[in-house]
């Protein structure tokens, strides 16, 4: 399957090329290689069988590289990943795949789907490359009864993850394996080698102390949640205005906000999946206290998701909130760590990255939005129609976080990204509306 393309530039030509022309040539060759590889790519466009293909490959090798990428990944990268896999205290399964439309929606579910096929405890990592940007989704499954830290909490504490290079696969995958090892047996997280870190570029980088201050602030107790939510929204609004003043390019007119019905369908699918997961957990005998807690938490989230869909069937924000809650309920009931949504758009992959947003606030974000923020830009975000003007006839699209938090628990909590209390807020909202 792996079609290797080798193109040699004649030696005399190579010597006379200026650096810029060499880069141009590299780009052209890459484009050519891509075109040559295209038939193979369309012949095996990703379908729901992708998890089956990866699981089959893992039967012979726990490091699986998609045939479409095989020619482009240096052996040194694979060697480093293998070394990290061997050093881990749990079995590690790693798959490297290109981003495809199928994965657009499924990346986040893939570790769960893959674990379902393999069935053994361990770390499941799916590394996805989009252009030359590598991201990874990972899930740690423990032997029944074993406790330890959540992988997500180790990741959130690991500030170095923010500076990992993403133009090749090893930095992020190796770090994920190290984080899972720490989550598993509490071993110290080693420092990231300098070669895996982005170079400091003074202007928007914070000092380590600043970052620690901010995370201490974000980590403030539950009692501070409400005040914190308000600070966040004030911060967000301020930033939004600044962006406007600097004449940020408005969204293209022909780019409508995400269709509400699409989110509604997804939310209802997830609610069904969460119901199944909760029912499975309910049937299991000899449940541990931890599993009982997980079940209760999953019920709470599932219940709030159902409430949102029942009480506001046509509302985009309610559907997105239901999607987030049902997703969390399904994961919790399956024994996986509950993850915060991407603050900017809760329909994105979960917020496995953390980014500085306004002066006082860090928010969870998906890898894509995180890379946008790190480039100093504002992600497009989940957009909603806002009515303004006489009789509300002037409709325009605005990011949801510019709406009034007083009116909506999803806005007030960033869909639970800012404060993980969306179920309670939904319950309070329901009482208020009646
Ligand atoms: Zn996002």
From TrEMBL:
Protein name (database record): Uncharacterized protein
Record flagged with keyword Transmembrane helix: yes
Signal sequence coordinates: 1-45
Entry superkingdom: Bacteria
UniProt KW keywords: Membrane, Signal, Transmembrane, Transmembrane helix
Taxonomic classification: Bacteria, Bacillati, Actinomycetota, Actinomycetes, Propionibacteriales
Membrane spanning stretches: 216-236
Residue segments, region Disordered: 185-211
């Amino acid at each position: 399957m792996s079609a290797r393309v080798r193109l040699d530039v004649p030696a005399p030509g190579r010597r006379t090329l200026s650096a810029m022309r060499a880069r141009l040539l590299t780009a052209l060759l890459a484009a050519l290689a891509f075109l040559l590889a295209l038939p193979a790519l369309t012949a095996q466009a990703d379908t729901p069988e992708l998890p089956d293909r990866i699981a089959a490959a893992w039967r012979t090798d726990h490091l699986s590289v998609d045939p479409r990428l095989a020619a482009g990944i240096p052996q040194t990268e694979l060697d480093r990943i293998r070394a990290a896999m061997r050093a881990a205290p749990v079995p590690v399964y790693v798959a490297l795949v290109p981003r495809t439309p199928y994965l657009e929606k499924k990346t986040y579910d893939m570790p769960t789907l893959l674990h379902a096929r393999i069935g053994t405890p361990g770390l499941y990592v799916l590394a996805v490359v989009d252009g030359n940007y590598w991201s990874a989704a990972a899930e740690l499954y423990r032997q029944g009864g074993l406790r330890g830290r959540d992988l997500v909490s180790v990741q959130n504490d690991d500030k170095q993850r923010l500076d990992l290079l993403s133009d090749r696969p090893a930095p992020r995958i190796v770090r994920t394996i190290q984080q899972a090892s720490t989550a598993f047996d509490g071993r110290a997280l080693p420092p990231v080698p300098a070669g895996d870190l982005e170079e400091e570029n003074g202007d928007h980088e914070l000092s380590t102390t600043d970052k620690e201050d901010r995370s201490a602030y974000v980590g403030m107790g539950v009692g501070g949640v409400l005040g914190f939510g308000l600070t966040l929204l004030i911060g967000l609004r301020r930033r939004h205005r600044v962006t406007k003043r600097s004449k940020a390019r408005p969204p293209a007119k022909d780019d409508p906000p995400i269709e509400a019905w699409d989110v509604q369908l997804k939310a209802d699918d997830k609610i069904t999946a969460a119901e199944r997961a909760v029912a499975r957990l309910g049937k299991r005998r000899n449940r541990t206290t931890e599993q009982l807690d997980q079940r209760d938490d999953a019920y709470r989230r599932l219940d709030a998701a159902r409430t949102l869909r029942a009480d506001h069937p046509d509302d985009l924000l309610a559907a997105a909130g239901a999607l987030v809650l049902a997703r969390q309920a399904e994961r919790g009931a399956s024994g996986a760590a509950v993850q915060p949504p991407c603050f900017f758009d809760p329909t994105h992959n979960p917020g496995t990255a953390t980014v500085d947003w306004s002066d006082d606030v860090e928010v969870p974000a998906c890898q894509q939005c995180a890379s946008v923020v790190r480039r100093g830009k504002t992600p497009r975000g989940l957009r909603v129609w806002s009515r303004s003007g006489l009789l509300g006839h002037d409709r325009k699209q605005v990011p949801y976080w510019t709406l009034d938090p007083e009116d909506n628990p999803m806005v007030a909590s960033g869909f639970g990204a800012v404060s993980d209390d969306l179920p309670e807020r939904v319950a309070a909202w329901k009482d208020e509306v009646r």
